[in-house]
Amino acid sequence: MVDKPLILTPWEIRERSFVWGERTFLMGILNVTPDSFSDGGEFNNIDAALTQARLMESSGADIIDIGGQSTRPGSKQISLQEELDRTIPIIESLRSHSSVPISIDTTRSQVAKLAIAAGADIVNDISGGTFDEEMFPVVAKLEVPYILMHLRGTPETMQTLTDYDDVIGEIYRFFAEQIEKAVKAGIARSHLTIDPGIGFGKTYPQNIEIFQRLTEFQSLNLPILVGPSRKSFIGHFLGKKNPKERIWGTAAACCSAIASGCDVLRVHDVPQMADVCRLSDEIWRK
Predict the structure, then answer these.
(1) Which residues are the active-site residues?
(2) What residue spans define the domains of the chain?
(3) How confident is the model over 187-213, as pLDDT tens digits?
(4) Distance of CA 236 to CAs 8, 151, 160, 273, Å?
(5) How far is CA 16 from CA 10, 44, 75, 100, 121, in A?
(6) Architecture of domain 24-284 in this structure
């Protein structure tokens, strides 16, 4: 059975309760980009994006995570306007059709602000508040949940910055520092979730170590999100060059995360991972 050190305050979003520890919640990935590593160009128009969002919701997604900036290794940052043009119309369209909670995957406070105004509910920041000094103050004013991820460098440089002395210790210290900064900026601690950033500035063995030692982050007393979906470390160990052939590897990683107390899984393949969550929760959460 998976236990948390403390009873964590649930998120209440659009009449839906995220009671941490009760079950594993699924965040469905909706990349509205032409160049994401596994699905670039598939959903970067409103009709395709809306169809995919509806499919994920009906298959068990608790949150739809919309991102307009590719964060694959080596990717370069697009302009603010381009990110807005990609994401805001799709958020508005999805919100007009559904009450499903929506997160905006962005490192920019201005995108976060306008996305929430358009109907999003959560800010998912891969930089953990390090790319934009206004992110924490803006999120504090918005009074919305915030996902704080660990990353070294930028997506363009991160895979050259993997020389950790103690990868778990350094991620833990990063979280402790950024959590303190976020709370000082006015973000309610109950609105925070941490994400160790699988695949972001980590080697293949370091990603495995994060799964092996995931329980060590529980002492931070915050919900934990893990995003292993189709990642290259899975392809490396299984010999799968095509990201879409990594579903079984993703399932194994998801099982491991759930057994170690993960609260939210960020995935592409929602129908399959919904089954993984249901049975894993039956085994480890009952």
Answers:
(1) 231, 266
(2) 24-284
(3) 999 999 999 999 999 999 999 999 999
(4) 36, 21, 18, 21
(5) 10, 28, 35, 9, 12
(6) Alpha-Beta Barrel (3.20)
